[in-house]
Amino acid sequence: MNLTDSAPAMNNLLGSETDSQRTLYPYVTGTSVVGIKYKDGILLAADMGGSYGSTLRYKTVERMKPVGKHSIIGASGEISDFQEIMRFLDEQILYDNMWDDGNSLGPKEVHNYLTRVMYNRRNKFNPLWNSLVLGGIKNGQKYLGTVSMIGVQYQDDHVATGFGNHLARPILRDEWNENLTFEEGVKLLEKCMRVLLYRDRSAVNKLQIAKITDEGVTISQPYSLKTSWDFSAFKNPTLGAEGSW
């Protein structure tokens, strides 16, 4: 058999590789998610912006979703990949419910599952382009963790993704305490989101705050923060930079 005769067979062998698709770049993305523990449970905050490249294209993107009875997830990064993650989680919750054994997946189990999924996809060079925050409460035990797109995970009393890691967590380190009331927790998250709005070009002034306690998950209606743009640094942002070259 000559090379010409073997070409179709070779194409069939390579077809599965050449036809496969990879997300090489994120297209529509969301920015920071901030999460904290408070006295009665977990609070998460995220704005509703969806950026198409550097353009703030969408302003009604919900990036926090309940997971089963005990958990809530928030996502930065590619919106379509977050939808795929939610499909995975819905399948896991459905499979768990089918056992009908009176038990249900808690936040720790969901967080561990997400860590394995993200790391597995990274090893296949086909990552899900998201950073995730997973919080919840089960049997009175509060849980809050995060996992990156390459499977790096940790747990803490407060977590953040994206610019929130640099701009919100210093505020949380100074002002967070384990006895925060719901009102104090919301006020602290709003302070973080206001700083992110001022400094993160991908942020929009339309956010939601999610709460999870032993009673269940509640996600607020979208609302805007009161802002002030009359700071001298905002009026003349190039002041101090002149003559630096």
UniProtKB/TrEMBL annotation:
Record lineage: Eukaryota, Viridiplantae, Streptophyta, Embryophyta, Tracheophyta
Alphabetical UniProt keywords: Cytoplasm, Hydrolase, Nucleus, Proteasome
Keyword Nuclease in record: no
Keyword presence, Cytoplasm: yes
The protein's name: Proteasome subunit beta
GO MF annotations, alphabetized: hydrolase activity
GO cellular component terms given for this protein: cytoplasm; nucleus; proteasome core complex, beta-subunit complex
Function of the protein: Non-catalytic component of the proteasome.
A Pfam family the protein falls into: Proteasome
Family in the record: Belongs to the peptidase T1B family.
Subcellular location: Cytoplasm; Nucleus
Highest taxon of source: Eukaryota
Organism of provenance: Castilleja foliolosa
CDD domains: proteasome_beta_type_4
